[in-house]
Each structure stands twice: as structure tokens, then as C-alpha cells.
Specification:
Helices cover 49% and strands 15% of the residues. The chain has 435 residues and is α/β, with parallel strands linked by helices. The strands form 3 sheets. A 6-stranded parallel beta sheet has the order 3-2-1-4-5-6, with helices on both faces. Strands 7-8-9 form a 3-stranded antiparallel beta sheet.
Length: 435
Amino acid sequence: MAKLTFIGAGSTVFAKNVLGDVMLTPALQDFEIALFDIDPVRLKESENMLNNIKKTSGSTCTIKSFSDRKEALRGAKYVVNAIQVGGYDPCTITDFEVPKKYGLRQTIADTVGIGGIFRNLRTIPVMLDFAVDIREVCPDALFLNYTNPMAVLTNVMNTYGGVQTVGLCHSVQACVPEMFKHLGLDQTGVKAKIAGINHMAWLLEVTKDGVDLYPEIKRRAAEKQKEKHHDMVRYEMMLKFGYYITESSEHNAEYHPYFIKRNYPELIERFNIPLDEYPRRCVEQISNWAKMRDEIVNDAHLKHARSHEYASYIFEAIETDVPFKIGGNVMNTGGLIANLPREACVEVPCLVDRSGVNPTYIGNLPPQLAALNRTNINTQLLTIEAAITGKREHIYHAAMLDPHTAAELSMDEIVAMCDDLIEAHGDWLPKFSVV
């Protein structure tokens, strides 16, 4: 019996998707599903929810909750990670409110930018603790990371954790369907090639019956830009740089220096940029949880339909040796993307079968796309340097090289803001040396 451990199982809705998918997959029916979360109430709620799905689906998977993380991991063949360190209150609030004092505004703040840097710094030590346990009790496990900041955390687990890790994000499989729907295009028979870095991967090729669809995509996108809509940043980037980006406009508004600017406040309205979007979502989710709890935790007749999440398809491909293609976050070993740093984590097509997750070689990205990726990779790698060395100066370096932060603040302001964020986070962060 193969064992699958889910860390952060109190993320009930996400656990429903990933583990519900497992229970609906015939090849995975003998799995033992081990649940772990630091919140015993949410852990119990997820266990109840999954047992309801088990009954309605007729699954023969075994479900068990653990209060001891190491025991939850012991003997696991697969580990799924979906934690969030610090939660909305206090840490997300801190990530947004302290930079606001310096006039630095954000939308999501979970990938790069000043918010992404500090989310990394409080999450990396926790992830490396996981790695210690994994090396001891399930050293051959495949670790599927769903936690943001995706690129940095996946990089750290592979490079410093000694754990075979693949990062998984929703944006790759949603990219073409959502864009085609918005532009009124039929995606039947469409072939696409996507590669880059997480949240900034590129739709490099999009064809149908050998015909390049980009000219028509750009024509329709230019027409859409004449009126306000939800994806204006991505369309603008495509029209200026030539290629569509996988992740949403609210994310990409803060990955680049072009959109959220104090000296050009009209850009917020022009490109329909939702400042403080992630805190709003958090508040809404918290307020809606009581109703959702009744709908998905306490419903004895709860049913589930297999989702588009990659996890169950990865397990199925490995267990059955029937290949499946994913977009995965992996190390740029061997120069999978030749004009990006080899020490970076990249997002590329991967073929999964019994041999595991096998990334494909991409070669060079168009030079303007590689340049845009490198601006975010710079901050990612320096954030890792700060976390591993414990040196505060590398936090400053990471923030100074972040495109949005550097475009808005002076070096002295950036240093002061980082110091304020370190103080505000308190014990959520490890101690960083000044020298």
C-alpha cells in the first residue's frame, strides 16, 4: 500500500480537490492517505470531509489524521505540501501594511516583491524542517509543493533540503482555456508550448492545424484593450513584449515596474489593477468559511468530481507507467532553459511515468522574455541567500533588485522598510545578522 502524506491538510477546500481526486482514481484505491496540520480543529474537519467523499465515491483508500508530523511522513511515497506560514493575521497584514507606509502598494504579494520576499523568509525554515524529517523517515518520497512563493520554496527543497521536489501551480493548465474563452476563440485541437518561471511562464507557441494563432490572438486582445476588463496587464505585456504570460493580471501588475507607480496613479484605473486584492480575498474567505464548513465538512452526501490539479495525475502516471504531461517547477539543471541561470527554478513541460518527473529541454527563450524572467530570478536567488546565510544584507539586496520596489523607493527607503518588516514580523522570522 502506497502512502500519501498531505501537510497543511487544514486547507480543507484544497485538500478536497487533491485528495478527492486521488479517491476517484482507480489506480490509487489502495493508497493510505495521511493528514497533518498544526490546527487540530481544521485537521478534523478535513478528515470528516474526506470520509464523506470516501463513502459517496466508494473509495477504498485509507484516511488517517496525525498529530505528529514525523509519523505522518513515515514511509510516505508521496508528500503534498499546502501550508501557509503566518496566515492572513498577522503576517499577510504585515506584508501589506508596512510597505504602504513607504508608499509601496501591492496586489497579491505572495511570489516576489517585498511581500513575496518576507513570505519566503518565514516559510523557508519551516520547509527545511520538513526536509529533515523526510530525509529521516521517507528519503525517497516525491515532494509536491503547492505553496507560494513557488519558485523559491521548490528551489530550496531541492538545493538545500535534499528532497526530490516538483512545484505545481494552477496557472499553466488554466492559461490557454481562460484566455481563449475571454477572446471568444475555440480551443479545440489547439497545441501550446509554455515555459519560463512560475507565475511568469510564457505561451511560446500556440497553433491549430499548423497555423500560428498569435496574430488573431493579438488582434482580439488589442480590441479588448479599448474597454476595461480583468486581464489588461497581461494583454498589455503581450502586445509590448510579444507573448502571453501564464499568471493573472493582478499578479503580474506587481512583478514588473510598469503598472503600479506613485507618479502615474492613472495607470491603476487604466489597467484595472486591484490594489490590496489578496487581503480582500482573505477576509472574504474567512467570513465565508462558516457556510462552506456546512457545505463541505458536514455534508454526509458530499460528492466530488476530479479536478484539473496535477497531483493525482502524477501519482497515477507513476503507479501505472502511463505517461502524462504536466507543467512543473524544477531546477534548471543542465540548462533546460539555456538563457536563464542554472541555479534557478524554472517552469517547463515535464513527462511523468514510472521513472518519475522528467523535464523537457526548451533551449533559449526569446531574449526579451528571458530578460524579464531574470529580473524576478535575481530577487528569488538573493532571498534564498538571505535565508540560508542568515545575513540581513541579502534581504536588502533582494528588495533592491525587485523591479517594482526598486522603481518606487530609494535604497535608503528600501533598507528602512526591510528593517521595519523584520521588526513587525517578530518571532515569525529567524534572526538575521547585521554583519
